[in-house]
# Entry
Amino acid sequence: MVPLFVVRYEAVIGSFLGETSSRLKKLFDFVRTHQCVLFFDEFDTLGKERGDTHETGEIKRVVSSLLLQIDALPSHVVVVTATNHAELLDRAVWRRFQLRLDMPAPTPAQKEEWFSRLETALGVPLGMSAKSLAEKLNVSSFSDIEQFCDDVRRRYVLSLPTADLKKIIAERLRQWQSRFTLGA
# Structure
């Protein structure tokens, strides 16, 4: 029952030398005065490995500053982070967190359930079974499934009253399959 503060990395990262560390300091000064949960999405943008030879000295200073700020937080501030690229995080970042959760890829049955719910929400048949769609859509996260369904739903609504949901899904499947084949 405490506030959740979501940190948008694009609002924290600055283009000038020292700007990112300064913004982080302001953020942490603020949250120290609140009992709260501080959530960083895409944490790899800030907590990047300092030994990366492709990175500048600035990101190394940012990571060091970030770690010191986290260490100085009072116990009434809970820090939660998320990343799709855990391999990019600095090793020292891992020591700052007591708990680590890996989110497994959705099972075929979970994908099938998701598509059944989409069909119910739209109130029209998908044009193929939820099971068939689950087998055809190769994704590695629930976020990808949600994004696919949002894309289908948006295109369906925009093409009303002559919408062809089966055609929309077939086109989206082709686009998603090429996206993951190309590694985009």
User: Anything to note?
Assistant: Helices lie at 9-12, 19-31, 57-71, 91-94, 108-122, 130-136, 142-158, 165-182. The CA atoms of residues 44 and 89 lie 6 Å apart. The chain has two domains: 4-94, 108-182. Residues 108-182 form one domain.
